[in-house]
Request: fold
Amino acid sequence: MSIALAPYAACDASSRGRKYPEAAPAYRSEYQRDRDRIVHCGAFRRLEYKTQVFVNHEGDLFRTRLTHSIEVAQIGRSIARTLNLNEDLTEAIALAHDLGHTPFGHSGQDALNACMHDYGGFEHNLQSLRVVDVLEERYAEFPGLNLTFETREGILKHCSLKNATELGDVGRRFIDKTQPPLEAQVANLADEIAYNNHDVDDGLRSGLINVEQLCDVRLFGEQYAEVMRRHPDIPERVRIHEIVRRMINYLVVDLVENSRRLLGEAGAVSIDDVRNSNNALIGFSAPVRAESLELKRFLREQLYNHYRVRRMTRKAELIVSDLFGVFMDDPRILPPQYHDKVRATPDSKTACARVVADYIAGMTDRYAIREHKRLHDPSETT
Ligand code: MG
Reply:
């Protein structure tokens, strides 16, 4: 059953198109084609072995960047469909939003950013755009995936003014202080809903945080009380899942209802009204935003900064910065497919650093660990 899109939703007819013009797809929408290209690209498959919070080999049940991205797409699509927005565009942005993540999650990105300090820095969000614009080499007629403007601007969630200027049209909204289409706003908040909730689930599974602590956090505590009232005798794992699914539902329902209100108040009747609005038109109500922030704070203090997570973080930083230093000292030991890229920029250390950063950022956790071992252990074959 196809449902009519709202007048302010993104659609093929209002798309700003692709950088390299292509004939319209025969049986798909433009955003479906974007989504399909993302699913078939190499960077997407590598998400399976990249850390969300827990390093991949710590356990088979923890989220990875891939399962995280799929959960973001699920939540985003369901919100988009309810609000009569473009589900395909929301899905494309959700599936691509973390393509630029380094191995080892945020610690890997922070380490690489520190290494790149004198060479323009490194930002995973910008890197996601670089992956789909430049680094994926799969098509005969254009570099990258040649995605639509709307998918690209949705991937670029935040951006410094300096980078925005260099990026041109897709960075324009950060200079003009305009809004991205609603589908990008939905994907952004679906990301937040997904990670807050799955990090509660993974954190409890790991034993690094516990239910008693979480009961002091309103969002969790309220759903805990409700589940205990309805189902006092269910097993612990089922109880946790019941709580998490209710938390997700609570946040999604609030987001949908509050966004409906915001859209009504703004009187938006076109995608241009959305772009020119002073504020985002997708958002939680103030009380629920506060609850979501409280949970975020709890996770930062109790989970992301737990000493066991920090120990893994430290190891990740050491590996990433060591790899960077070794390749910068002698770019000739990069894999052969990178040699031409380095040779093309013989006099520029900055350009060489970007090639090295692209190589490291593309690594999965296990590839980075293996590559590090290969470079340091003489008994390893190269
Ligand atoms: Mg994410």
Q: What stands out?
A: The chain has a mean pLDDT of 93. The chain has two domains: 12-308, 309-376.
